[in-house]
Amino acid sequence: MTYQVSRNVQMYGPYTLEDLQRYVASGNVLLTDMAKSEDMPDWVPVAPILGTAGIPGSAAPGGATPTPAYAAPANYPQPTGIGYPDPPNLHWALELVLGFFTCGLFVVVWNLVIATWSNRIQPTSKALLLYIAATVLIVLNLGSSWTFFIALSHHVHPHHNVLGNLIGLVTWVVRLIARFTLRDTLEQHFNGPEPIGLRLNAVMTFFFGGIYFQYKLNEINEMKQALRYRSAVS
Fold first, then answer.
1. What is the pTM of this model?
2. Average pLDDT of every residue of the chain
């Protein structure tokens, strides 16, 4: 089992239980720092996770408690996540419902919102450009399909919609590339400047795209808000 450690809204880790014991003993992790494993529903202080007996060298001569150094573990780089805008926070279920009632158009628009935000945190990402290209192709595909159905409604036998099929295929490919580009952008950011150990499943990305991303972004926002609240009251 591994643990994420949080201090002042910054994330460190993941660390094993032995890592935590060693870093607490060296003073690089504080007993008051918050920690959480994947199996834990809430963030808790490091102290109850380790227990008094699990903290080697925690007592100084004479029974005094040593004052730990307020620093990140030496083998993990200092994060630079302060100042980054929070992710879009529309609930993923609401995105799904709105997408259903708009025949998927809302999901297309919301993908652009997420990609625009990702471009702010990672300006070198190509996700936004790819999503814009995919949106343009979707509009062209809709126009081609609309022309096809208008011809049918006027009892005119239209030519086989080869162009529409080609645009549809290209649209699907570009959207898929955009999804995985955005996936890479999110993982790079949330394992670098804001290191929370984000991992995005490739199968979920393939089938659910932006709805899956928004589900993960909702979790990240909940985590950030909880940590800010604990920092404010501590």
1. 0.63
2. 79
